[in-house]
Amino acid sequence: MASHVVGYPRMGPKRELKFALESFWDGKSSAADLEAVAKGLRASIWKQMVAAGVKLIPSNTFSFYDQVLDTTAMLGAVPPRYSFAGGEIGFDTYFSMARGNATLPAMEMTKWFDTNYHYIVPELGPEIKFAYSSHKAVAEYKEAKELGIDTVPVIVGPVSYLLLSKPAKGVAKTFNLLSLLDAILPIYKQVVSELEAAGATFVQFDEPSLVMDLEAHQLEAFSKAYSYLDAASLGVNLLVETYFADIPVETYKTITGLKGISAIGFDFIRGSKTLGLIKEAGFPADKVLFAGVVDGRNIWANDLADSLSVLESLENIVGKDKLVVSTSCSLLHTAVDLVNETKLDSEIKSWLAFAAQKLIEVDALAKALAGQKDEAFFAANAAALASRRASPRVTNEAVQKAAAALKTSDHRRVTPVNVRLEQQQKKLNLPILPTTTIGSFPQTVELRRVRREYKINKISEDEYVSSIKEEIAKVVKLQEDLDIDVLVHGEPERNDMVEYFGEQLQGFAFTVNGWVQSYGSRCVKPPVIYGDVSRPKPMTVFWSKVAQSMTARPMKGMLTGPVTILNWSFVRNDQPRSETCMQIALAIKDEVEDLEAGGIQVIQIDEAALREGLPLRKAEHAYYLDWAVHGFRITNSGVQDTTQIHTHMCYSNFNDIIHSIIDMDADVITIENSRSDEKLLSVFREGVKYGAGIGPGVYDIHSPRIPSTEEIADRISKMLAVLETNILWVNPDCGLKTRKYPEVVPALTNMVAAAKLLRAQLASAK
């Protein structure tokens, strides 16, 4: 019985790639140094899979930024502004597309389906000339083969690539991106031919778009693409991999009817209805089914007995020689190896499986299906699952009772937002086009050292508090010098906003090395929600009061919202996510009210990940948005009308949920806008009325590029064309912690100058 893995984490167990990338970007190491680190990581990953018993091992899942950008490079689809002259794409062009440079903005970045992973959005149009410009897939296959390891090269499929793209600037928004299919298929065919010549027997095309609600012409594009990429004519087996949700019935008919492919992969974790569909509709005898029964998106140990039952049901339908045991999706979305967690509570640790352990689960299931069941391994797994179900630390009856009572109200503030804003303005006395930032300021080496030394008891609590107060004072003074209107304390006490709150909430556990890639070199360490959630004591009140005492200007209290904490954590899978969200909302509500009581007049409750959690199928949108928006409203339902509630969202497509955003009833929303070519503004041009305060981002903080005053002023002018002057705020796209002060200071200087320029123009026009 064969075993397979869709993909694997690429950062390394201790974020080796992250540090290599940042060293290269800072000019401290060479391209050769970066390549050497990458080659070592790839070899280690492949060898680990061999040792775990995986038979079909992926290659070309390693990336210096993301797999969609790698595909853009393969196709030579470089936007003209980067002046790519042809040939093999190098790091200069590649990273300019991803991050921008001193003179050019980066391409748009957005979320990869409903995950916290990001990708760089291809910019395409009718004039683009595709050319085979990156041989990475073939090179990495050969690299593995030199180690004696035969792999399955993985490439983003041609149809999903086009569906994930957008019309380039200046191209009509109605441009049919699938019209470019004929232009890219010859390059895909050439890549597959080269892989076949190098010895590949399988090539995996990731087509996650197949789980979406597709129209007839989109389904036809899949038929067209894989008829062209005919496995028989190419001499290699083509695997089409799907993941993240169930396959719709019409899509299932299309994909199982494709003559050009040899195998299909399905997600049986998030696609819980797919087994029933296969039982009802059958499965083609000429294809192999890759069964994703090991969860690639969470860190709980697999229920091996349940997964084996699913596999046995599938085996009865497709036959023993037509079934491959696999992960539900790439393991990119999980932490790397539980072995590195030496400080994790032993009972909780026994309930978990990171990527390395999931390899073993895949192998154990494949062997069990082949009649070689490891009884001791299965018994230990059953015992761990039973321990988790029976553990008293999982359940808190008081929390469950309080959360259940929430269903009796919609928790909407009684006073309309326009009236609240008038009352808040009387108290805050802000200018028109008020300026603010999103929360964090640069995390310096010295600041990280202080936090690290405090955690290992190398410095005392008094020394730590003194250092953090000193950092807050610097940030406050800088903002006052820049003449920013509503200040933040810079979050110097926080390495990661979700981790920071989770560390202070009951029901959460934390790892030391449970890092997961978000984009590029950006890694996050999601907390593990293992039980009912509550707040034992205030979390941010002390630092917010310290910061407010340093200035007469309004100081924002900075919190992370319940939906974002949920979506950026590894969430318990033994109760509905909505129930866990309500528990978190109650904990944040307590914190909001303590901040207000402490004299904080502006409180920001970030919901950066609200859109990210939107289900992939439209039929499920309303239910999710109902409980997600309700969860946010719970957090601030008890504050006075004069307390101004902000929220923040970033790096997703918000246009399709704008009415739910309005329904959140925040006083002010700051939202990413500049990197996505001001896509957000189109909803207001189309007539959507927004009466609360709103701050569409005026510059991209994920690029080192410093925008000019004129550029920012031009953005503000575009906003004023569709938004009322009295509701518009001026702010960056997102928090500043990934940037350096030499970038932040001039960018904020120009931002404030642009706001003042527009204020003067508005005043003179009266």
Contiguous uncertain segments of 5+ residues: none
Q: CATH class of one domain, please?
A: Alpha Beta
How is the largest sheet built, in terms of strand order? 1-12-11-10-9-8-6-2
User: What is the helix fraction of residues, given as a range?
Assistant: 40-55%
Largest sheet: 8 strands, parallel
Number of continuous helical runs: 28
Give me the CATH architecture of one domain, please.
Alpha-Beta Barrel
Calculate Rg over CA atoms: 26 Å
Assembly form of the protein: single chain
Query: How many E strands?
Result: 22
C-alpha end-to-end distance:
77 Å
Question: Could you please say which CATH topology of one domain applies here?
Answer: TIM Barrel
The structural class is alpha/beta
Strand content: 5-15%
- Calculate the mean pLDDT score and round it: 94
Shape: globular
Describe this structure as you would to a colleague.
Residues 433-756 form the Cobalamin-independent methionine synthase MetE C-terminal/archaeal domain. L-homocysteine binds at residues 438-440, 606. Its EC number is 2.1.1.14. L-methionine binds at residues 438-440, 491, 606. This protein has 766 residues and is of the alpha/beta class. The protein has a domain at 412-765: TIM Barrel, CATH 3.20.20.210. The protein is built from 28 helices and 22 strands. The radius of gyration is 26 Å and the shape is globular. The mean pLDDT is 94.
